[in-house]
C-alpha cells in the first residue's frame, strides 16, 4: 500500500520574509559545502592547463622536456640551470596533481627525481657544476 502524501496546490510557495528583514541564516551544512578544500582549488586551477596539454600531440611534451633537460645539462652557461629548475618545478606540479593516485614507493621516487633536478639546476646557476 502506497503512502499518502499531503496535498499541495500548484503554485504554493513558502511565505517570503517581509521586506527589510534580515535574511535567514543558512544551515551549517550549506556553509561547509561552499568551502572547498585546498586540494579541490588546486585541481580546479590546474584543469585549464591540463586540458591544453591534453590537446597537444602526444609526442610533443616529452620531447620538449627531453630537449630542455639536454640543453640545461649540456650547455656551459650558468643561466641554463634555470631550464633544469623549470623542469623540476613542472614535474613537481605533476607529482602534486597525481599524489592521491600514486603508491608510496612511486611518491618517494618522484620526490627524489624532483629534488635532484631542482638541486642540479640551482647548483648550475650558482656555478658549482
Question: Could you please describe the fold and organization of this structure?
Answer:
62% of the residues lie in helices and 0% in strands. It has 129 residues and is mainly α. The protein has a domain at 59-129. The protein is elongated and about 75 Å long. The N and C termini lie far apart (83 Å). The model has no long low-confidence stretch (mean pLDDT 85).
Write the layout of secondary structure elements.
Blueprint: H1 28-34, H2 38-55, H3 60-74, H4 81-98, H5 104-125
Helix pairs in contact: 3-4, 4-5
Summarize the structure.
The protein contains 5 helices and no strands. By secondary structure, the chain is mostly helical. Helix 3 (60-74) packs antiparallel against helix 4 (81-98) and helix 4 (81-98) runs antiparallel to helix 5 (104-125).
What descriptive keywords fit this protein?
129 residues; single chain; elongated; mainly alpha
Give the helix tally: 5
> What low-confidence regions span 5 or more consecutive residues with pLDDT below 50?
none
Strand content: under 5%
Query: What composes the largest sheet?
Result: none
Q: Secondary-structure element sequence?
A: HHHHH
The mean pLDDT is 85
Count all strands and give the number: 0
Global geometry:
elongated
Euclidean distance between termini CA atoms: 83 Å
Q: Which radius of gyration do the C-alpha atoms yield? A: 27 Å
Classify the helix fraction into a percent range: 55-70%
Supply the helix-strand structural class: mainly alpha
Amino acid at each position: 500500500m502506497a503512502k499518502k502524501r499531503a496535498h499541495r496546490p500548484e503554485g504554493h510557495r513558502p511565505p517570503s520574509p517581509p521586506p527589510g528583514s534580515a535574511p535567514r541564516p543558512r544551515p551549517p551544512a550549506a556553509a561547509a559545502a561552499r568551502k572547498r578544500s585546498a586540494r579541490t582549488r588546486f585541481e580546479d586551477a590546474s584543469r585549464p592547463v591540463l586540458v591544453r596539454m591534453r590537446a597537444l600531440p602526444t609526442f610533443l611534451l616529452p620531447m620538449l622536456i627531453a630537449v630542455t633537460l639536454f640543453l640545461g645539462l649540456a650547455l656551459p652557461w650558468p643561466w641554463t640551470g634555470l631550464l633544469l629548475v623549470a623542469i623540476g618545478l613542472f614535474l613537481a606540479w605533476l607529482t602534486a596533481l597525481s599524489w592521491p593516485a600514486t603508491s608510496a614507493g612511486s611518491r618517494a621516487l618522484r620526490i627524489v627525481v624532483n629534488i635532484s633536478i631542482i638541486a642540479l639546476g640551482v647548483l648550475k646557476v650558482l656555478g658549482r657544476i
